[in-house]
Every structure is written in structure tokens, then in C-alpha cells.
Design a protein that fits this description.
Elements: E1 19-22, E2 39-40, E3 51-56, E4 59-65, E5 108-110, E6 123-125, E7 128-130, E8 133-135, E9 138-141, E10 147-149, E11 154-162, E12 167-174, E13 178-188, E14 195-196, E15 201-205, E16 215-222, E17 225-227, H1 229-232, E18 233-234, E19 239-240, E20 245-247, H2 250-253, H3 257-265, E21 268-270, H4 277-283, H5 288-295, E22 308-310
Antiparallel strand pairs: 1-2, 1-4, 3-4, 5-20, 6-9, 7-8, 9-16, 10-15, 11-12, 11-14, 12-13, 13-15, 13-16, 16-17, 18-19, 21-22
């Protein structure tokens, strides 16, 4: 049997209070005997993760909590299907085409049972603008191989690879209507359409894609629109800022909207041999002073071949 990740190491007591079945097992667990497809743990269901890895020498086996012990009624439809209008696809991160200013009413999001995605609380990069692009998540320092956990119960929508962005990444839709994205992973431990529990290890931290050091890129989205995770989560405390619910509002939840629209309408050029500020200003119908303000430089700044400048 193949294994996906190391969650914990156990010595197993021979008491039969709880049965856990291994992932991809073809046999049914039998309560009367301890077999290769049955793990007996002296614990209560509430204190166990939905997956456990047992290491015995070189033999590693992963077990999943039996459905009979899971309190979640998954149903047949994708999570929050009514909110997303029946759209469930792995084609792209945001297939919904719902702009922030077209979100109706003030949706209320259940925030209970939130799980922080990693052990580290060190934020290496915040949500917001990055010169000529927008950073739609919060970056948390992790080491390659660190456990990355699902924030709430949900269903995996995308397991993919983006060489120029996320690297290996996972998108999960949750019952509360939010979607979370976990990027720059080194190893993916879940499959598309798989149901997952809050706190379940879904991947291992990494340094893939557009990344200059191992970290977790962590996003929260509603109908495809990014929410600054630090609005909802206290990173240093690894906890949700709201005990029960959070109400989405345009001003409170998406304060970056005006800045993002301005960035999307901005035009950038790559400096070529012979380019000057005055020449660029004339070419694009602007002034040297405006170019300097847009790029936070002065009229005497040296511009170099290959450098990107915003011209409007």
C-alpha cells in the first residue's frame, strides 16, 4: 500500500474502541480481529484526525477515519452549490466571472471550526499590490515537507501545477461558501473531487512555481474574488478572528478593489536600447513628471534595458 504523508507516529494499544480503515483498501475492516486493513486506537473519535499514518520500520501505511465516525453529511452536490450556480470545474482558479460590485446582498459566512493551514505564523509577504502585479494571498514561511492542512471541511476542486505562478497547488471549496488555495507545494496528498476534513493534511510545503524560497501561498476567495486572509484570520494566534460568522461587505471585505482596478488598467513597457523618459512620455502621451510619480523615480534616474516601467 502506498503512503501519502507522515502525520504522526504511534504505538498501538490493542483496545477496540475505534476502527480506522486504510486509504485504497479493498477489504472491509472487521471488528473482531486486527488485520492489515484495520487499525485499533484507544482514542475517542473527536480527538483523532481523519487520516493517520503508521510507520513501522520501512513500512508506512496511511489510514482514513471510517465514514461511520464522520459527523459530516456530504450529500451529492458540491459544497455551496447554490452560491456558485452549479459551477464545478477544474479548468481554472476563477471560472465564475462574478465581479466584486455585482455580489448581491451581504453574504454571511460560517467561521466555526477553522483550522490554520500550517505550524508557522511567520508572514513573509502580505496581501496587496506588488509593483506591476497584485498578490492575492498571504505567504507563510514553511520548510519543504511541512504539513499543510485544510482550513475547513470541503471538497477538492483543483489539484494542479502552474509553473509561472502557484507551482503545485490545491483549491478546496468549503460548505461555508469560501474557497481556499494552497500554493508552492512540494507534494500533493489529495485528488480532485475528494472530500476532505478541516485539519486534514492535504499537501506538503515546498518551493515550486514562481517562488524564491520555500513558503505557503494561502488564499481565501468568495465567488472567485480574493479576500485578504488577515481580515478573517489572526496569523500570529493561528486562529479565526470571528467566533461564529462573518458578513461580507464590499468596503469591509474588498477594500483593495479600486486599487486593483487601477492596476488592471495600467500599462507597462519593457525598456529597450535607446529609450528615455522623455521619449516614453512623448510616445504614450504623458509627461516625464507623471512617469516619475507612477514609478517612484525622479527625472535623473537611470533606466536600464529590460526594466519595466508603468506608462499609464
Amino acid at each position: 500500500m502506498s503512503h501519502r504523508s507522515l502525520l504522526l507516529r504511534l504505538s498501538l494499544p490493542l483496545s477496540a474502541l475505534l476502527l480506522i480503515a486504510p486509504v485504497a483498501s479493498s477489504q472491509s475492516p472487521v471488528a473482531s480481529r486486527l488485520s492489515p486493513d484495520t487499525l485499533v486506537l484507544d482514542e475517542v473519535a473527536e480527538s483523532l484526525p481523519s487520516m493517520i499514518v503508521v510507520v513501522n520500520g520501512n513500512d508506512t501505511v496511511m489510514y482514513r477515519l471510517l465514514p461511520s465516525f464522520a459527523s459530516v453529511d456530504w450529500g451529492n452536490l458540491p459544497p455551496a452549490d447554490s452560491i456558485y450556480g452549479g459551477i464545478w470545474t477544474n479548468d481554472r482558479v476563477n471560472p465564475y466571472k462574478v465581479s466584486i460590485d455585482s455580489i448581491k446582498g451581504n453574504p454571511v459566512i460560517a467561521m466555526t471550526d477553522y483550522v490554520f493551514p500550517c505550524d508557522s505564523t511567520y508572514v513573509t509577504s502580505k496581501f496587496g499590490s506588488r509593483r506591476n502585479r497584485f498578490h492575492y494571498g498571504t505567504d507563510l514561511k514553511v520548510q519543504i515537507g511541512d504539513s499543510i492542512r485544510c482550513s475547513w471541511d470541503g471538497r477538492v476542486r483543483i489539484v494542479g501545477y502552474d509553473p509561472r505562478g502557484y507551482g503545485y497547488f490545491v483549491v478546496i471549496r468549503h460548505e461555508n461558501g469560501l474557497e481556499t488555495i494552497y500554493g508552492h507545494l512540494s507534494r500533493l496528498l489529495v485528488e480532485e473531487d475528494e472530500r476532505v476534513f478541516g485539519g486534514e493534511v492535504i499537501a506538503l510545503g515546498g518551493n515550486t512555481g514562481r517562488s524564491t524560497g520555500s513558503h505557503l501561498h494561502y488564499e481565501m476567495r468568495y465567488l472567485g474574488n480574493a479576500i485578504n486572509p488577515e481580515i478573517l484570520v489572526n496569523m500570529s494566534a493561528r486562529s479565526c478572528r470571528y467566533d461564529s460568522t462573518y458578513t461580507i461587505t464590499q468596503k469591509g471585505t474588498f477594500p483593495y478593489y479600486a486599487e486593483m482596478k487601477e492596476m488592471q488598467s495600467a500599462k507597462w513597457v519593457t525598456i529597450k536600447s535607446g529609450d528615455t523618459l522623455s521619449g516614453l512620455a512623448k510616445r504614450y502621451g504623458t509627461s516625464v513628471n507623471t512617469l516619475c510619480k507612477l514609478n517612484k523615480i525622479n527625472a535623473n534616474s537611470i533606466i536600464r534595458i529590460g526594466q519595466k516601467l508603468r506608462v499609464r
